[in-house]
Amino acid sequence: MPSSRLIAAIFLLALPSGAAVAQDAASRFAQYRSSPPLLRAFLYRMPKGGDLHNHLTGAAYAEATIRAGAAAGVCFVPETGKAARPPCNPPARPMTDALHDAALNRALVDAWSMRNFVPVSGLSGHDHFFSTFAKFSGAAPMGDLAADVIDRAARQRMRYVELMATFQGPAVGAFADKVAAAQPWANDPAAFEAALRSAGIEALVARASLDIDAAEQRMRDVLGCATPQPKPGCAVTVRWLQQVSRVMSPERVFASSLFGALLSQSEPRVAGLDFVAPEDDPIALADYTMHMRMLDYLHGQMPKTNISLHAGELTLGLVRPEDLLFHIRQAVELGHAQRIGHGVDVMYEDDAFGLLREMAEKRVAVEVNLTSNAQILGVQGTAHPFPIYRSAGVPVVLSTDDEGIERIDRTHELQRAVTTYNLDWQSLIGLERNTLEYAFVAGDSLWVDSRTWQKVAACAAISVKRDPSPRCAAFLLKSDKARLQWAFERDLANFDREARSLRVR
Known about the structure:
This protein is α/β, with parallel strands linked by helices. It has helices at residues 4-10, 18-21, 23-32, 36-45, 56-59, 62-71, 97-100, 102-111, 125-136, 142-155, 169-182, 189-199, 203-223, 250-266, 282-286, 288-301, 327-333, 352-362, 370-377, 386-391, 403-406, 410-421, 425-437, 457-460, 470-477, 480-498, and strands spanning 48-51, 75-77, 82-84, 93-94, 158-165, 237-245, 270-276, 307-311, 339-342, 365-368, 396-398, 447-449, 454-455. Helix 3 crosses helix 26, helix 11 (169-182) packs across helix 12 and helix 12 (189-199) packs across helix 14. The longest helix has 21 residues, at 203-223.
């Protein structure tokens, strides 16, 4: 049991009660919500929990990618906007050229993001959005991109970010092809898993850990974390989600899923896995149920694997009506998803109201990406199911998806939600608490119930004016999740006092 002196040193500020958290901040929020500039400034300074749906390469801004790529000696092809490896033989040019040529710089930023995009016949926002990834792939080191994303999160007073990335992707794909050449995929996951393990797929896990070491070391170097003046991003807790592309052959999808599960089991920095790539891709549509059955099998083998799945990132017209009937349900029931990414087409599903009840009962959270859904699917405002999920009691978190491509940040998504759906202050706090409650972080939650935000018994009687009791401090010391939640509540208490000075004279 830790000493009282240690408890006081670690937990100097006590957790405020729910009623005390928001009084002054709530008043300031009500005062500023009718002014977009004031609301933006207020929400930017507001403490935030985390971002749970964030693709690393799409989250870094193009300008940061260009600078990092130039420093790394990467090339690009002006006519196509695609990054290229050195040497920079024509038509490729050094990316350093884009640092000093305004026209080249503008062209690259526009090609790598939604900036200045105007839909034309044959090219939709959906198509341009997804085309950007192939253009900037390999343009900059992973650690540089992570530094850009994490520092931006910290400046918005976030404590936690889950970054989606693909470690050892090409190696896993080649490994799957080699195994399949001797034992083709026959819709028998047990047999194919045995073949993959026998061939030594677990050796790639150690390589992935080295990749994470290198990326995080580079990230810390860029942020100056070991210097006397570290950047704010050094204080953010970072975890990784291993991406599995759903537009590959069955053997590659299964091998990548198995690899993601193995990696998350052996590597504490990898929080879980997620299926990515356009859900409307012909392969993704044709193989969707098979993919969910793969996850069902792997969940039976490794039930502690955390799973978040892009599901329901579809709308009528993009695909046939029949393709809107089952993706979210299968992700929940077959894929064992603890969180759903996007979930836009939920009301097109068979027995949509029953599905909402099931998600609310199972506490399956939905990662809502408002700007992304507007840009890619054209779904926004009252056409978006965000308020339906909340009314049904389904946990919701606001996330960014690909803030660099979208030219937004997390604060922008908060402001969009407030102004579009008339959220009050307590709703906003609840959304932020959700980002830590449903984060894939080890340990017990600070909360008994994420609907009432009642604290666990060990900390329930803590007064705002007192340090945590030895019992509460011992509980917090055992749980990474509870410590993050405690720190966020402390941030809210500080912000409540700070809000008194946030006024226009």
